[in-house]
Amino acid sequence: MNSGKESAILFDYFPESVVDGSCELEVGRNLHNHLAELGEPLQFGIREGMVEAFLVERGFSGVQNVTAEEFKKLYFHRANKDREVCSLYYFAHAVIE
Question: Among 23, 26, 46, 94, which residue's Cβ finds the most Cβ atoms within 10 Å?
């Protein structure tokens, strides 16, 4: 273990399918291809539905996963309520107990 008790991690991530190019959504394939063309391919993704297991295996608990839909409901109001949010963005938070 490299982190002290009550340490936290907060990060955004893409599904593994975007990183490996197998995403069924056009936006996912476009993102994958565009970043690869720029010489900056995505290096890391987490299989959909597996973020909790991924973090628990690494010593974290209290895992919270926020989907793009949930993020939009929480933060996009008033003038931004109709703003499009890419469905491929996820956010995760967890702590070391």
Answer: 94
